[in-house]
Amino acid sequence: MKLKEDVLKRLEESRGISVSGEEMAEELSVTRAAIWKAIKSLRDEGFDIKAVKNSGYMLSSTDDRLSREGIETGLRAAGFTGVCEIEVYDSVDSTQNVGKKLVSEHPLFHALITANSQTKGRGRYGKNFYSPKDTGIYMSLCIRVEKPIENFLSITFATAVAVSRVIERHSKKKAEIKWVNDIWIDGRKSTGILTEAVSDMESGMLGYVVIGIGMNLKTRDYPDDVKDIAFSIDDMDICRSRLIGEIAAEVFEVAKDPDSLEIYEEYKSRSLVLGKKIWWMENGQKKTGTATDINRAGNLIVDTDEGISVLNSGEVSIRPL
């Protein structure tokens, strides 16, 4: 098993470029027959590995299978130098559930959980996040955070900024943020972010944050309740494993100082709601107004006919009721 992982790691590091079987055998201190056997096993699992005449083996640049080795390569390529536990599943109920269980059982600093599909993907307010097999990114990041609980919202803001940066790095689309934490493209939702705290209420400090990120990439058929609002980013120039690694590296970096003025200003500059008419439900009643600002605490400032409203949570809409 270890040899197969080592071979895949070597192929991932040189994705799209052939690697000599003889060189791999020497590097890993095994026979060429052992390398061939590992390659065959990886092919049987579905990896698109081509044999290049007189050159060796090559992992196709278009291969889109999730792998720990591909994610690790993406993390390192994006500049992450720390230790991160990575767990890859074919299917789970929710990567958030796996992440919260993980941090409750093991002391760690960074962890990444991802799956090809979720049977009960979770969004905010108990909503489902549609997670069909192999068509999107479904991941959760676990981060040890030594900050007061009131800093919780800033981590959500920083994550939305980080994910938006990565999207624009690999897509021609402009990423906008709908307060608090949805990323919209061309007027529809492409990415949802769910941040949950594992905190010490006695000390008033965060212990861990578990950040769920769900991104539509190749999904075509959506359930009726989201089909008019969901958007798939189908022009990404990077495979899912590398993309997951890069997103994780970016989020880990901004989480070091989520309260920075740079992140706050970028979040506001990407806002989908500022300057627009919005509506929301409050105590069973529809409220309307114009979103005018987002303060440093993360509250949305809304100018209404009754005066200024300050929203610290909830969901707002820019669509007609």
Task: Note the main attributes of this structure.
321 residues; alpha+beta; seven-stranded mixed beta sheet; 8 helices; 13 strands
Estimate the helix proportion, in percent: 25-40%
Distance between the termini: 56 Å
Looking at the structure, what is the overall shape?
elongated
- Main β-sheet description: 7 strands, mixed
The spatial strand order of the largest sheet comes to: 3-4-5-9-8-7-6
Describe this structure in words.
This protein is an alpha+beta fold. The chain is 30% helix and 29% strand. The chain has helices at residues 2-13, 21-28, 32-44, 68-77, 95-105, 152-170, 240-254, 261-269, and strands spanning 49-52, 56-59, 85-92, 110-118, 136-144, 176-178, 182-185, 188-200, 205-216, 277-282, 285-294, 300-304, 307-311. A 7-stranded mixed beta sheet has the order 3-4-5-9-8-7-6, with helices on both faces. A 4-stranded antiparallel beta sheet has the order 10-11-12-13, with no helix packed on it. It is elongated, with a radius of gyration of 22 Å.
